[in-house]
Design a protein that fits this description.
Elements: E1 81-83, E2 89-91, H1 92-117, H2 121-141, H3 143-152, H4 163-176, E3 181-186, E4 190-195, H5 205-212, H6 216-221, E5 227-233, E6 242-248, H7 249-252, H8 286-289, E7 291-293, E8 299-301, H9 302-308, H10 321-331, H11 335-353, H12 357-367, H13 376-389, E9 394-399, E10 403-409, H14 410-413, H15 420-437, E11 441-447, E12 452-459, H16 463-469
Antiparallel strand pairs: 1-2, 3-4, 4-6, 5-6, 7-8, 9-10, 10-12, 11-12
């Protein structure tokens, strides 16, 4: 290892459509509204007490975190977490983990929609790799990004491109994405990073292929013509670890490379370092210590990582989902078919989420739902936790036994221009209504304005009867 390079800690780092108003499912540009509070409810009813809500079993709209002040760093409530309508607080560490589990599950749904449209694994992997590469390449083509990197990460002016600089950037991303591990080797000629956890691994090989598109930052930071970059082990493919090895050609010589990035499994020239299972980490240390230390001495608070990794907006806030949607738009021009497939995948996902009675009991306990409440408010409370974890701008406008309505900022919900995400949430929540409450309940999104959607949860007909055969009841979903 180069003696003049900083050491990397082996302990801390390794480093139905669902929308009532007809809208296009792709290429829709949604103008972001003026800046709002980053999370929680807005517009508290006059005179309402700051007490959770005034009546626990009807009538009052719950007062959530926004009225109790916000943590400036994350946009979460001052207790750094989420709070249910029944005043059950979920702390920061669990909120962070919950957010990334939710993001991985949403991406799993979209990746499976893509698998139906493009069943050829090799074609799908390449398309996912390419779309992520393009996004990363555009990000680092901005001179301001390179200035941010060198300034924020304390990179000395004397440092030139090399494997180590790419590792500095990637290590922070790993930590922020809750990929706990360690850096075994850190030099200009060789980097070896080993990960013990990855919240996205449950998605499967598609996300591993996607992530290899991230090697675009090597173009800016590591002189890509001089190095080999391998993701030799992948938890999303069944390995115990994820392992990234970057080796410089001038030291290790030329070797034959596969055609596509996602095929770079190695092996590496030098032996790898394998951490035994009993010494593997279960979580990133910044969740406990509050700080991540980058190799050149830069420090990132855990709240800064929470925000940098996309809480509240930006494509990274729905990593995996966004990449799958981009490829879907390229390979399937029929918008109605895509909307139908999204509905067919996400609605049963919602039913399965609470298909077991133990799951219903578990989430009710997690939310602190009183035993006498078994109506629209249960699903409304659960949805509010998702919106809080994502740091969206939202509010309850109705919170009654027979009807709960939640308004949400459309641009933030859909990451500005991915209305497919709203389609998926509409189907998901409609499915959840059937098992978290009962089969007579429905959930649907309606457009309030160009900037706002509202989720309506109420009893309703659907299917053939909802289509008007019975001559009564609301329209089906």
């Amino acid at each position: 290892m180069d003696s003049n390079l900083p050491s990397a800690s082996r302990d801390t780092h390794g480093a139905a459509t669902g929308i009532s108003k007809e809208s296009s499912a792709r290429d829709a540009h949604i103008n972001a509204p003026e800046a709002k509070a980053p999370s929680g409810q807005e517009g508290a009813p006059a005179g309402q007490k700051d007490s959770g809500h005034e009546e626990r079993t009807g009538g009052a709209v719950p007062v959530t975190q926004a009225y109790r002040g916000k943590d400036e760093e994350t946009g979460l409530g001052l207790y750094r977490g989420m709070i249910s309508p029944w005043d059950k607080v979920v702390a920061y560490k669990e909120t962070y983990n919950y957010l990334f589990r939710h993001r991985a599950l949403m991406a799993t749904g979209f990746m499976n929609v893509l698998r139906i449209v493009e069943p050829d694994d090799r074609k799908r992997y390449k398309a996912l790799q390419d779309t992520f590469y393009e996004a990363m390449d555009q990000m680092f083509a901005d001179p301001g990004m390179m200035e941010f990197f060198r300034t924020r990460f304390n990179i000395p002016e004397s440092e030139v491109a090399g494997a180590h600089l790419a590792a500095v950037f990637a290590d922070m991303g790993d930590e922020g994405n809750l990929m706990a591990g360690r850096v075994h080797e850190f030099s200009r000629d060789r980097v070896e990073k080993e990960l013990d956890t990855c919240p996205f691994a449950l998605i499967g090989p598609d996300i591993c292929a996607t992530s290899m598109g991230g090697t675009a930052f090597l173009k800016a930071l590591a002189a890509p013509d001089e190095i080999y970059d391998d993701l030799s082990e992948r938890r999303g493919c069944g390995d115990t670890h994820c392992r990234v090895v970057i080796e410089n050609k001038r030291k290790y010589g030329e070797r034959q490379r596969p055609e596509e990035f996602w095929e770079n499994f190695g092996p590496s020239a030098d032996p790898i370092h394998v951490t035994p299972k009993e010494e593997m980490k279960t979580e990133c240390e910044h969740l406990t210590t509050g700080v991540y230390h980058s190799p050149y001495g830069a420090q990132f608070t855990t709240g800064e990582l929470f925000t940098l990794m996309g809480a509240g907006g930006g494509d990274s806030s729905m990593y995996g989902s966004v990449e799958a949607i981009r490829v879907l738009r390229d390979v399937e021009p029929d918008e109605k078919r895509v909307a139908h497939l999204i509905d067919c995948v996400f609605e049963p996902c919602g039913k399965y989420a609470f298909g077991e009675l133990a799951a219903v009991k578990g989430v009710r306990d997690w939310l602190g739902v009183p035993g006498t409440v078994d109506d629209s408010r249960v699903l409304g409370g659960y949805v509010s936790m998702i919106f809080q974890a994502r740091v969206l701008s939202w509010k309850f406008t109705e919170f009654e036994p027979d009807r709960t309505v939640i308004e949400v900022d459309k641009a933030k919900l859909t990451v500005d221009n991915y209305p497919e995400i709203a389609l998926a949430y509409g189907a998901l929540f409609n499915g959840m209504a059937k098992t978290l409450i009962s089969a007579e309940w429905v959930a649907r999104f309606e457009e309030v304005s160009d900037q706002t959607l509202q989720l309506v949860i109420e009893r309703g007909y659907y299917g053939v009867k909802g289509a008007g055969i019975a001559g009564e009841g609301p329209a089906g979903l």
